[in-house]
Amino acid sequence: MAAEIQPKPQTRTPVLLNKIEASQDVVNTAVIIPKEDGVISVSDDRTIRIWLKRDSGQYWPSIYHTMSASCSCMSFNPETRRLSVGMENGTISEFILSEDYNKMTPERTYEAHQGKVTVVLFVLEMEWVLSTGQDKNLTWHCSESGTQLGLYRTIAWVSGLQFDVETRHAFVGDHSGQVTILKLEQDSCSLVTTFKGHTGNVTALCWDPAQRVLFSGSSDHSIIMWDIGGRKGTAIELQGHNDKVQGLCYAPHTRQLISCSSDGGIVIWNMDVTRQETPEWLDSDSCQKCEQPFFWNFKQMWDSKKIGLRQHHCRKCGQAVCGKCSAKRSTIPLMGFEFEVRVCDSCHESITEEDRAPTATFHDSKHSIVYMHYEPTTGWLLTSGADKVVKLWDMTPVVS
């Protein structure tokens, strides 16, 4: 049974700036246009819309363009104003937006996939368009010629993709819960490594090139911070959502991670603290505290004439314990547990009030989030929901 999050009331909260409510279907991806009071959205209703704020204070479309299929994802590069839109039919359509965002000129179409495009990334430095699809393929195309440069077959369809320009590493998160690191070349790629820490599918990835840290969110409600550089191999678990993690953004100037989930929760994590890895769960045939046998240990049950007990694990030390020896609960924020979890009696005694000081704040967006985008230059956050509404938030009260 999932633990209940009981966040304390926050004095500082995100400020809702505006709502955009004109889409006929779910907005799959939307981004804030930097240095402009505008938003770009793509939707299941097959539309691409450029929303600009009018004198009335409301956002109205300066561009309303209907595509041949549902728009599943997009990538926007503000420097070149290149908009790459992935669609349900497997194609990627590219457009160049005018300086005043009132005109959209078709540039190129890529026949990239045999199924729905799940993620598309335009990498200006490489002049590449990276994309993944439900056909389990990762492809990269030359954005200048439109030709396909390479293809990699994944074990499951991909729902998260990030790229590091400096090392040419692609981070691929899929529906098996696995994250794959690939080294991409102009016309080939090599497998670097794979790692798996989620029990559900990977739903979001976020890469911080400065700290060499990858964040992965999952349908198992958890977030894992993978230290790719520095202390290699370290994996820190963050537990702060009651539903599927839908988006991750990192604010490097404040070292805060922003995460959101389909239950409407927005969590701000302080990553400028020394966090601890959660321990591996230990195996034992009897409680490692009172030595009572667990219910499958028939020999010890017979020898000691005792009834077998159900096995649990202490979230702090990882020991296998019975329910009586782990009846207490506690938050362990530095291990990522922002809500109360099972701990053994001795660990509960060792946890101080200082240890219980929260390292995250919890906020309610009041809609089921399907996508989010953070714009660090303004401190604004965009959330799009299953309710077909796009909300704009001022995050400066909490991301600071």
Automatic annotation (TrEMBL):
Origin: domain of life: Eukaryota
UniProt-listed GO biological process terms: positive regulation of fat cell differentiation
Keywords assigned by UniProt, alphabetized: Endosome, Metal-binding, Repeat, WD repeat, Zinc, Zinc-finger
Subcellular location: Early endosome
Coiled-coil regions listed: none
Limits of the FYVE-type domain: 281-352
InterPro entries the UniProt entry points to: WD40/YVTN_repeat-like_dom_sf, WD40_PAC1, WD40_repeat_CS, WD40_repeat_dom_sf, WD40_rpt, WDFY1/WDFY2, Znf_FYVE, Znf_FYVE-rel
A Pfam family per the record: WD40
Gene Ontology CC annotation, any one: early endosome
One Gene Ontology term of the molecular function aspect: zinc ion binding
Swiss-Prot/TrEMBL WD repeat ranges: 20-51, 195-228, 238-272, 362-395
Family annotation (Gene3D superfamilies): YVTN repeat-like/Quinoprotein amine dehydrogenase (2.130.10.10), Zinc/RING finger domain, C3HC4 (zinc finger) (3.30.40.10)
Protein name, as recorded: WD repeat and FYVE domain containing 2
Species whose genome carries this gene: Salmo trutta
